[in-house]
Every structure is written in structure tokens, then in C-alpha cells.
Amino acid sequence: MTLFLFLLIVGYVVAFFYTLNASIKNSRRLLLVESELTKLKAQIAAGGVVALPTQDAPAVEEQETLPAAFQADVAPHDASEETPVVAAQAVPDEKLTEEDAETFTLPAAARPKESFESKLGARWAVWAGGLALALGGIFLVKYSIESGLISPAVRLAMAAIFGILLAAAGEAIRRKAVPGIATAYSNAMIPGVLTAAGALTLFGVTYAAYGIYDYIGPTTAFILLALVAFATLALSLLHGQALAGLGLLGSMVTPALISTESPNIWALFGFLTVSWLATAAASRTQRWHFVPALANVGLGLWAVGYMIFTPVIEAEPVIASLVAMIAGSIWVWPGKYHGQPRNLSTYAPRSDSYFPAIAELLSRPPSNLNVTLSLAIVLPALAFSVIETGVTMHPAFAMAVLVLGLAAMGAGRNHAVWPAIFASLAALGCANLLAGFGVNYLPTLGDGTTTLSAVGINDAVQGPVTRIMGILFLLFSFEAIRRKTSKDPSFGTLWAIIGAVVPLGLGIISFVEFGNLTRDWLHAAYGLSIGLVLLGGAYRLDLKRDDAFIAPINVMVLGSFLAFTFTVHTLTSGLATTLLIPVIGFAYVLGAQRSSWAALPWTMALACLFVLGRIAWEPTIVGPQNLGTTPVFNALLPGYGVPALLAIASAWLLRGWPGVRVRNFLQAIASLMGLLAIAILVRHAMNGGVLSDTVPTLGEQSIYTLLTIGMSGVLMTLDMKSPSPIFRYGSMLAGVIAMFNVLVAHFFALNPYFTGESTGPWPLLNLLLIGYLLPAVAYGGLAWYARGKRPALYVTLLALSGAALGFAWATLSVRRFWQGENIADWKGFLQGETYSYSVVWLAIGVLLLILGSRFNAKSLRLASAALVFLAVAKAFLIDMSNLEGVLRALSFIGLGVVLIGIGLFYQKILTAQPKAEEAQG
């Protein structure tokens, strides 16, 4: 009974497809006529003259002999769209000439709208039929099992025959279908649906024979599953990418379905590699992207999963399989991926801005293939980097092979931007993990015999491997720049950055972890070699006189400076390192006198930043225990002074350099370093030859304020001789900083009235002189010098700051006269002292008024008015209540006389101004 039902279903399937095929044959001529009419309309619209075919056969032959490369590139078009379809320019095949690739285009053709009846009959019926077939097979098997009518062997044989018949029916429909119908009803996928159903059936039958009924052994099951998978993959060339995905899934799942006590790892990864290569070959002919990306992911997951869950790792087959994947990506698919005709600049820059260029660089097709390939290589490389035990090969070797293979692809293919980036990051990251700098992500895995640890295997292998990787990255970089930059400047710039950063980074990791931090000649030779290669390579590329090499050359120049700086660190320390870094930068500045490389001045800027970084790390340069106590003449003088002098000399030599940014930067940093050198010498001298983080005294802070004021004047002078925004705004910034120091430190934080600091035994030459009077004079001179050169508001603030400091000096001097050396607030006030304040304030107010009138300085007159107002307020609020007897009377008498005099003086000024105007008129 069951056999009869099975034969009935098979007969029904055969009859159904026979009827469908007959219907297709009956409509063949009509569809050919419609196709010829459509082609004729398109050619007439394009202005071409054509000859109508006289027979059907030539028309069919002409359509079938269209080159395969162009057929593959014509995407299926939904017949429901009403708009005409214009085929994009096709990508030429290797057998076609470049002229064919440029000129060949498919004619525009308008497709008729597909009716609802056509959709329902051609698509939904097929899909529903496929589902019915699958359910019928399932119900048939279920019925036979429940009834016990036939043996398992017969069931499996019947299911296998059913699967083969489905695949055969799909192939029969594909071969007999008219191309016109296949195109119009492409979404129905009749042959593909049948073939996929047959493949799934055969997969199920094979696994059931092995895993459920034990009819076949693991080797036979493995071979049969592999054959089904590869056959499905081969048929995908005829039926599309979806079937290829099914075949790939079967090939990737097959090893997981077969269990054995003694697995052959070479056979496992050999099978996976062959499966990947078959997928890549099929994808190359059809230009698929999705399925090969899944193949990359599948092989990468197999490698990582095997390494995680296996107690003893055979590294060789894993590495061989992954290297084969890299090689296949280089030469099979995507290979030399071309997105444009070959005689055009494929990756020509589209904008002068950095961001569009970066976006174009990172989005180059086929990005999905490149990203998945990179992850499939980098993840196993990282896993090798943290393996401590249980591997047949040294992890450093395994990691290096994978990373260098990925880097080779990134250097050899213009589209392989992501492999280049991932390889660079993986090289640095894996070297860190091998050196023991990483994090212990996975302490134990599997059965506990394979240990992943952040503790590096510190032996004689990792250091050489790390340095060899750096040298090979440098060679890859130079070769990529030399061969690719002319037609692809952004790609050359990317590899210039990689060639400068990765070798140097690997050298630093090797030196810090495995080198002699005192003096290491091996790492010094490594750094010197990298610097010379980069500098020599830049010189050689400059001889080409090609603008495309400008950016890579400048990157290589900066990289050479960094390499030489690394060399200095490997051989020296302390003061010698601090001196040699700016010396190297100054040598590049001297080279800028004969070369126009834009990066040359920036090397000095980097040198200054390195020096400032070293100063921030160790302000004493040589260490507190080695710093002498002699003022000025100690290690601080050359340690701070020589870099500052070299920075100043560089700024002067480059005063005519066309690059405004670097010129301004050098001017600013030279000014800063000069001021810092003087300030640190002052602090050293003022603190007894010891540099500490203690709060400075008023005398020390006064020197800093005077230095800042002086710096403002120097920058103003430089701006007058050589106008620069750095000098202009830097001079005003220095003045503002000085004013902030006055407000915070001189008046409040370090004021001896609040701190109780002794002012010294001398009446005039004391702390108040250096803390208040000298800065007041300096502010006055700076305000006078800035008149007409800086904004009026800024000049006014300078003058007011000077006046405030002068007022503070006079006031505190009065207190010192009455109270002695210590003028702390806890000592209170004397009546004579209180009266003296009024006298002094009025005298200063009158003096400021005279000076303001003499120099026509409104700011001084305003300061005079403020002091007079303060004296009046003091007289009425303080003197009236605190003074007694004659002092109270004298206070108000003096105040009245001064106020009357000031009034008469102002009347004189106001009456003199019109006369002057009349005289001028």
C-alpha cells in the first residue's frame, strides 16, 4: 500500500511537470515574437538601424550566445515595474578587451507589467506546490513508520529516490524552459526550489542512515554528505546564490554531524578548505558576495571553535586552512576586484576634504567580503596569542603567519582596505597579548587542559618574531606605496601610516618587554634601520615628482623622526635623551632649508611636545637625587634651556615657511618653553635648590608674574616685526594670566597681611617691593607700550592692574611702617596708621590724576577717582568713629582741601580743552 502511494505521488509529480513543460512549449513562439518587438523598439529609440530576423532559431541563438560575463551582471528585474530598465555598464571579463569593457552596454528595454493571474499561477502555485511536496513526503514517511509497513532501509531508499527525482525534475525544467519565461518568472525559481528540496532530502537521508539507523559508518557518511554538499554547490551555478548557500551550509555542518573518537584534524580542515575554495570559485563566475562572506564566517568559526574546545591544538592544519583562505581571496575571489573599467583610475580622489576620502576608502567594495575575511583571520590570531599550553606550535609563530598573510593581501589589493587595517591592529594587539599586557579573558576552556592566559611566554622567540613582523610590515608598506599610490593616493597614504606606526609600535613592545631598558644596541639598530628605510624611501619616492606621493612622503618623514626618537630612548636616558630629541628635530628643520617636505617643520613641533611630556613626567630631568642645589648652573639649565633655544631658533628659521599652522605652533611652543625655562630656574633658586610641589612664596610668585608680563611685551614686539596671530593673541593671553595671578595670588592667597609672612628687615628693599611695586611698574610700562597696538579695553585693564598693585604697595608699606616686619591682620590697627591711610590714598589719587592729565590717560583718571572715592568713604565710615581729637579733625580738613583742589583741577582741565580745540581749529 505504501509503495503504491509513493509511486502514485511520483507519477503525479512527473505528470505535473510534463504538463507544465507542454504549456511552456505552446507559448514559446509568442514570447519570442514579443521579445523581438521589444528589442526592435529599444533600438529604434536609440537611433539604430536593425534587420528583423526571418526565423525563430537565429533569434534564440543570438540571445543564448550573449557573453556569460554580461549575462551574470544583468540583475533580474521585477516584471511588475512599469519604468523602463537601463542596464548599467557591465564589468568586463578577463577574456574581453578593455575597449569592449568600455563600450558595451545593454540596450534599454521596457518590460510589460505582469498581471495578477500571471503572478498567482507562476509564483504562488509553485511555492505552494513545493510546500505540498515536502509535506507529502513527511506524511508518507510518518505513515510508513507508524504502520511498520516497510523496513527502515526501504524508507531511506524511497526518500533518496524521491530526492534524486526532485533534483532531476528541477534540472529538466531548467533545460527545457524558454529563456524569456525564465526571465519573466525569475522570482518563481521553479528549478531552484525543486533542486533545494532534493538536496535537503538527500542530506536528511544520509544523516538518518548514519545517526539514527547506523547503516553506514562515519567515514561513509562524511563522504556522502560532502558529495551532496558539493553537488548542491555545483548546481547553484545553474540555479542561483540561494542554492549555493544551502550547499555551503551543508558542507560546513557536515563535520559537526559526524562524531568519531579519533578525529583527523588535517582531513577536517582540508575538507573545509576545499568547500571554501569551491564556494569562492562559484562566486567568482557569478560575482556573488553574500555566500562567500558566509563561507569566510564559517571557516573562521570552525577555527576558533576548534581552538577553544580541544584539549591539544594541532595548529598546523588550522593555519594551513586559514592561509589557503587568504590565498583564495587574493587570487580566486574577490581577487583583483574591479568596480570600474580597467583603463580608468578606479579609486581616484573625489574631494580635497579628508572625510569624504576616508569614507570612500573604508567603503570600497566588496567590503563585506573583506570584513568577514579579516575577522576570520584576526580572531584565531588573537586566540593563538593568549594560549599558554596545549598547542603543537609556538603561538608567536602561528599568530605571525596569520597576521602577515592578511597584511600581504591588504598590501597587494587596492580594495583590501579592511584587511590592511585589521592586520595592523591585530599585529599590535597580539604582540601586546604575547608580551603579557592583555586581559585574561578566558582562564580555562574545554576540559581545562587548554589554558588561555594573559601571562606571556617570555622566551627567546617572541622578541625576534615581533621585530621580524615589524620589518615585514615595513616592506609591505613600501611596496604598496611604490606600486599603488600613482592611481590610488589614499591607499598609499593608508599604507604609509601603517608602515610608520606598526613597525615602531612592535619595536616599542619588544623593547619594553624583552629589551634592556638601560642600553639596548639590538633595539637601537632596529629603530635606526626603520628610520633610515622610511627616510630613504621618502627621498626615493620624491624623485618621481608625482603629486600623488606627497602625503605618503610626509607620513614617512614623520615616521622616520619617531623611529630615530625611539633609537635615542634605547641608548640614553635622563638629560641626554631630553637634549637629543630636540637636536634631531632641529636637524629636520635644517633639512627644511633645502627641501619642501611639509612634514619637516612638524618634526620639531613633535620634539618639543616630547620634551614637555618628559618634563611633566620628571620635572627635575635627572631625578631629585641627582639635581644639584647650585642656582642656575645645574641640570635644569641645559635640560630646559637647550630645547627652548632650539625651539626659538627653529621658529626664527621657519619665519618664512609657507605653512602658517606649523609656523604659528612653533612660535607659540618656543615662547612657552622659554618662559618655562626661566620660571623653573627661579623656582629652583627660590627654594634652596629643591624642586617640590610646595606652594610658592610671594617673592617667587612675583617673579612668575614679572616673567609673564615680560613675555607679553616680548610677544608684542615680535608681532610688530613679524605679524602673527600667535604673537598677537599670545601677548594678550600672557597679560591676562598675569592679571589673574595678581588678583588671586598677590591680593589674597600670598598677601603677607593674610599669611603672616615676614616682609624683611629693610624699609624699602623688602618683600613688598618685589611683590607689589615692581609688578605695578611693569604693568604701567606694558600698558604704555600697548597703547595703539592692542584693544583699548585690554590697555585699560593693564593700567588698572598696575594702579591696584601700586595702591596695595603703598597701603601695605604704611602698615609695615607702623607695625614692623610682620603686618599680619591679627595685630589690629593704630590711630596713626588709620590716619596715614587717608593721607596716602589721597596723595596717590592726586598723583594718578596728574599723570592721567599729563598723558591724556582716561584709565589713570578713573583710578584716581576710585581712590578719592575710597578715601572719602573711609573718612566718613571709619575715621569718624575710630579717630579721636586732632587726628579726626585733620583727617576731614585734609580731605576737604584735597577735594576742593581736585575740583579746581578738573575745572582747569575742562576749560582748557575747548581752548585747545579752538586753537587747533
Helix content: over 70%
Largest sheet: 2 strands, antiparallel
Instruction: Give me the number of helical elements.
Output: 34
The rough form would be described as: elongated
Rg over CA atoms, rounded to whole Å, is 44 Å
**Cα distance spanning the termini:** 132 Å
> Strands of the largest sheet, in order across it?
1-2
The count of strands amounts to 2
Low-pLDDT runs of 5+ residues are 1-27, 48-110, 178-188, 340-346, 438-458, 914-921
- What percent strand? under 5%
- SS content category: mainly alpha
* Average predicted local confidence, pLDDT: 77
Protein name: DUF2339 domain-containing protein
Keywords: Membrane, Transmembrane, Transmembrane helix
Transmembrane segments: 6-24, 121-141, 153-173, 185-209, 215-235, 265-283, 290-309, 315-333, 369-387, 393-411, 418-441, 461-481, 493-512, 524-541, 548-566, 572-590, 597-617, 637-654, 666-686, 701-718, 730-750, 762-785, 792-814, 834-852, 859-877, 889-906
InterPro entries: DUF2339_TM, UCP035905_mem
What does this structure look like?
The structure is a single chain. Among the domains are: 1-213, no CATH class; 572-694, no CATH class; 712-808, no CATH class; 829-921. The chain is 73% helix and 0% strand. The protein contains 34 helices and two strands. It has a two-stranded antiparallel sheet. Helix 12 (265-286) packs parallel to helix 14 (315-331), helix 23 runs parallel beside helix 25 (636-653) and helix 28 packs parallel to helix 31. It holds the Pfam family DUF2339. This is DUF2339 domain-containing protein.
